[in-house]
Amino acid sequence: MKPSIAIFIFFLLVAVLASFWSFSPAFNGEFILDDQSSLHLNHSCKTLDLSTVLNPDRDSPLGGRPISNLSFALNFAISGYDGFSYRVVNWLLHLGGSAFLYLTLRAVISRDRKFDLKLEWLVLLLVSLWACHPLQTATVPYLAQRTEVLAGFFSLGSIYFAIVSFARSTRAYPWAIASFIFCILAVASKEVAAVVPIIIFLIDRAYFSESWKDPLVRRRFFYLGLVLAWALVVYLFLGTGARGVGHSGGVTTWKYLLTQSRVVLTYVSLVFFPYPLVFDRGISVYGATAADYKYFALLVALVSGALVGLVRNPKRWLCPVLFLVILAPSSSFIPIWRQPMAENRLYLASAALMIPVFMWFFDRAPRATIGLLVVFLFGASTYSHQRSQLMASAVALNRDIIMKVEENPFAWINYGKALMLSGDLDQATKAFEIAYKSKSAKAQAAGSLGMVAEVQGEYKKALEHYLEALKDRSLIVLYGIRLGTMYQRLGKLHEAQGIFDRLEQIAPNNGDLFLFGALVAIDSGDLDLALARIQRAQTLDPLSPSLAAVQMAVHYARGEMDRVADLAAKGNKEDPEDSRSLLYLALTSNDLQSREYKLALIAHGVVFRDSVLIRRSIISELTRRGLVQEARLANEKLNQDLAVLDQAQTPVELK
Questions:
Q1: d(CA 652, CA 467)
Q2: 33: left (phi over 0), alpha (psi -120 to 50) or beta
Q3: Helix-helix angle 366-391:3-23, to 10 degrees
Q4: Distance CA 607, CA 615 (A)
């Protein structure tokens, strides 16, 4: 076996073991932050129909990122909602990106140096340190980080293939084509990859060309092809929702630029001293103080110096300029007002800073540098292991965020949602109320308070909160469904049908919309529409946890008792304690004396979440089985619920 092959295999073993140790606590962790929006609420990834998959919901975290959405769709087709498999894929993509980074560094460094064993070790340890750096902790546990990891994988692949094509005197075009394809895939994974053509051009100038004009003359068709990626970025970006980008949050370009001056310098310090790490700093970063002007002046001086240095000595100043280029999409003129600072944006940029620093030390003390890198790798992987443990729990992660950045309202909302899922409604309410005081998070906090009120049976309060949440356009589908469902359950069928009709035009690929819209159609008496909607919901999201219950309701309303009994028996077999399966077994059974069926009927006789038609059927069944007192109580509860809307507001128009 050749030494280079042996070293590369050893690199793979080191990188795999170190990265596995770094991320191992998170493989079986909980869904956190945008994971719900990226997977559970992203109905375009629940099918393999490319016309749907490649056009994700515009307000989703995957909006305008069709390749990332395709990866989620493939993942979903294999494992559904099992978070473990998504994290394994994230990890494998991260390892793939590490391999491309290794090959890229080796190809570039070999232009000036002869590779010996020490240099092999240096490159190996540098890439391993990058792969296990605490700044990369979100790579595996955070499903939504798939966009960054996938874009990084394709970006590094595009850069490596371009370098190979530059170095070859013959048959370079297959590598150039591969570079172009990977560049397009990177841009379609996440728009920040738009800087890849610039990165390739700068590397070409530094290591393969004698002048700035030379690359554009010798490889003009290659670069013309790469520029097409920018047209794709514009096309994809125009098809997305606001997603916290632009001036809708009241942040001016100048204020954002001032803030980014401080943020970029903070990024530099975090690469070498990753403490404290805060997963979501939110809008707390803002504050155009006198210090920001000093940071701005310092950054302008550093950028100007780097650009002058690049012109005079492209090789020496390449990496510092690449660091700035990689951060440019998120740290320049376009405000990402909801999250002006995010450590995951250093995914690729961190490598551009670490490489020249350690190369400088290596030239002066090779053995000491390698020893230092070994120590750093051990420390980094241990710290990342601890961070992965934290990120495995939604409650623990969000608690850590608000302890470090108490003034982040969106962190309070996420903390409240995690508490709500754990069953602590009182503490969840307090967290939402804190977020509600912030103007930027008011609508989102109102919707969250509405969910708590609905669970607690305070339906009028829930309606008021949902109506307030609907003032935010990005929340129309989520809280429009909840509002329409509440009106349907309380007998306001005309209002409910109007909401769902409008929502179908806004989000035609939302499975929950058709799922709960089927219940509206049942109570409205349009059973054909109910069947059509449930079939559409099954196509869009076949693994929805609510699908079986609504299917049984639709078939029950249509009088298809054999079908209901089959679905109920199947559900009961999969989970003997599933109350919905027991309910429909009770409704389709003539066993009047079955204790578990009676208990199922009694329990659901007072449940607000069932449709009015189903609740009335339950009351009739309770009476038929001689449970007169229970039937009377269920009827009283139904009448109380139907009276809740008497003084409620009329639903806002959904635009």
A1: 7
A2: left
A3: 30
A4: 8
